[in-house]
Amino acid sequence: MTLAHWCLPVALTILPAVTLGAQEHEHGAGGTEKLGTVSFQTSCTVQGQPLFNRAVSLLHSFEFSRAITGFNAALAADPSCAMAEWGIALSRWSNFFAPGVRPAGVLRQGLDAVTQAKAIGLKTPRENAYVEAVSQLYANIETSDQSTRVLAYRDRMAALAAEYPDDTEASIFYALALAASASPSDKTYADLLKAGGILEGLFATQPDHPGLAHYIIHSYDVPPLAGHALAAARRYAIIAPASPHALHMPAHTFTRLGLWQESIDSNIAAADVAKRTGVTAEELHSMDYRVYAYLQTGQDAAARKLLDALPEVKARFDPNAIGSGAPGSAGVFALAAIPARYALERGAWSDAAKLLAQASRYLYPEAMTYYAKAIGATRIGDRATARGAIEGLRAKKDGVIRHHAMRRDGSVRDSVLYSILAGEWPDVRKHLELRVARHSEIEGIR
Description:
Layout: E1 2-9, E2 22-26, E3 32-37, H1 49-60, H2 64-77, H3 83-93, H4 104-120, H5 125-135, H6 146-163, H7 168-180, H8 190-203, H9 210-219, H10 230-239, H11 244-248, H12 250-256, H13 260-277, H14 280-296, H15 300-315, H16 328-345, H17 349-353, H18 364-379, H19 383-391, E4 396-406, E5 412-421, H20 425-443
Antiparallel strand pairs: 1-5, 2-3, 4-5
Helix pairs in contact: 1-2, 1-3, 2-3, 3-4, 3-5, 4-5, 5-6, 6-7, 7-8, 7-9, 8-9, 9-10, 10-12, 12-13, 13-14, 14-15, 14-16, 15-16, 16-18, 18-19
């Protein structure tokens, strides 16, 4: 069985060039921090409850760093507000849709918050159910894998929502867990449609709730369903303009639907707020979406400006920081994707061939650069560079098929074949993971 397979034409091409409670909180002197309307009733005191609601509104827009600060403010106002520790635990998990396994340090911090919530004391069975649900994300981390724990959290939230049908927050967080745990191989999109249905039903009566608009976009963030999210996408930035992620997320829908100018406008606003609030991963993520939209509309000069701005933004970027909805991996992705997109979309094959892969704790940005480099080198006839790029992914040369295909000019070309067999993948993966581990040690990542 072949796991991966590449065909490298000796002269011309290997693959088509494809591209990769009311919360209007006072902020500053006379300013208003608009985060949407959240009313999550708890047993916290009248001093702690408004601060708790504000923190939940930040959590719903994936403003994790600010949410943790907000939950700590609720605890400072009301040390008995155990549900604030629930919020910290869920914020520590960060974006449910982000790829990768959570680092050990994050898991320890989340478990500490769960432990502290129980130590403070949960005053109602409902609040205890919330803490027991989030504890599943951090339970038995030595013996259970992450996907198992996410499914356990989803199931606990399903039970909580069923037991407390009048608790809209329970239904909202359950729908989020359902969408985030949906199997990508299910092309009926059963879980995504179920999650979207729950959220849309609530959105009709709570049109200013940030989580509802946000999670509707996520639930329908696949091409066949994207049209269902358009109304929520056009409303989300109005609901929570103080959140850079809320300003960016509509672009997911706009991109799926080819609404390029709306995507550009969303990401200009998102990057501006992200820069001002110091969440550089979100800034890079928004830049990546803008570059893609600019290239689809022939605005190459605008895309070039963002490419030229990358070194300055990269200098401010900490891939390990807890910030907004775009995780560090999204920032690393953008740093690799923007140069690759700019070269491939414009047919600048020489530029693509000169791309240099940058090691990181993630494999796919490096692989993306090798892919773009191989295409560019092949297009200009630089066979050695093209082969080196493919071999950088540990693919093995199978051989040459002579007179394999006809060029547009009528001449015939040979093709060089590369592959990774299923039986070879464990060793290839081990090699790549060792490279990631070495880089992580250099960065001090634990």
